[in-house]
Design goal:
Blueprint: E1 7-10, H1 14-23, E2 27-30, H2 36-41, E3 49-52, E4 62-65, E5 68-72, H3 77-82, H4 84-89, H5 91-98, H6 103-108, H7 111-117, H8 124-130, E6 134-136, E7 141-143, H9 144-147, E8 148-150, E9 153-154, E10 164-168, H10 170-182, H11 185-207, H12 213-226
Parallel strand pairs: 1-3, 2-3
Antiparallel strand pairs: 4-5, 5-10, 6-7, 6-10, 8-9
The structure holds flavin-adenine dinucleotide.
């Protein structure tokens, strides 16, 4: 099926793309086109005007600043998959990107288009939530937990364009989670109980082996120091 007629503009900068979008009330951005074009062909979407952003270099590329990984919205799934920065910092994201669709989809589809489309079957959202990612637009930053508001719905509204995605490195996320867990009394009690069980088993094992009295005594009183 063919899509309904539409006007087409190719923007060369973020400012130009956003002003074209504002001038045309029914406009949609076109990135990789791998979700939008099929939706237009099925007449599920009828934007009237397409603002092609695929030439905007400022929306491309992956960099790392400390524990924060910055992924431009036009970065393709293939680039996310192959990036050493993503592999080192957020390996789950790289693995997910490598499993999206097929090579054609991965070479054209973009991470920004994927999150903006907010398909509940998408691979990225769950991982971005686990990484505590932030979606950045021209005038605000949206925590990923607040970004997805429903099926195919996001918090973009009047700030339409996704510029970059900021993800924390997995190591930082793990440290934060561990610190959070350690702050919970139940978890600490469970940890201590587990360690005492371990020491108890060790004691039983050593008691049947040849072991000096001092060594046995130390093992018996060791749990006291753990608690
Ligand atoms: C055969 C096939 C298999 C697929 N398999 C998977 C899969 O396994 N897992 C998966 O997660 N996805 C899958 N997809 C979807 C694919 O990942 C899409 O590429 C992606 O969802 C949309 O990215 P895009 O760049 O093509 O966006 P487009 O199709 O160009 O745009 C999608 C929507 O996002 C908007 N948009 C695009 N860029 C921006 C931006 N920077 N700011 C604001 N809005 C923007 C557009 O206006 C449009 O509404 C598949 C798609 C196909 C065709």
């Amino acid at each position: 099926m063919h899509p309904a007629n539409f006007d087409y503009h190719r923007a060369s900068s973020i400012d130009e793309a956003e002003s074209l979008w504002r001038e045309n009330s029914e406009a949609s951005f076109l990135a990789g086109g791998h979700s939008l074009i099929p939706a237009m062909k099925l007449r599920l979407s009828d934007p009237g005007t397409l603002v092609d952003i695929s030439d905007i270099d400022d929306l491309k590329g992956i960099t790392r600043d400390g524990d924060t990984i910055r992924i431009g919205s036009l970065t393709t799934h293939a680039e996310v998959e192959k990036s050493d920065v993503v592999k080192d910092g957020c390996s789950a994201l790289s693995e997910a990107a490598g499993m999206i669709g097929d090579p054609q989809v991965r070479n054209r589809g973009t991470i920004g288009g994927n999150v903006a489309h907010a398909d509940p079957a998408s691979d990225y959202p769950g991982i971005l939530m686990a990484l505590g990612a932030t979606i950045v637009t021209s005038n605000r930053s949206i925590a990923v937990d607040d970004f997805f508001t429903g099926l195919f719905e996001t918090a973009l509204n009047e700030n339409p364009m996704v510029l970059v995605l900021l993800a924390e490195s997995e190591l930082l996320v793990q440290q934060t989670m561990l610190f959070g867990l350690l702050q919970q009394k139940k978890f600490c009690r469970g940890l201590i109980w587990g360690m005492m069980q371990l020491l108890h088993q060790l004691q039983k094992f050593l008691m049947v082996k040849k072991c000096s009295v001092t060594c046995r005594l130390l093992l018996i009183i060791a749990p006291i120091f753990v608690v």
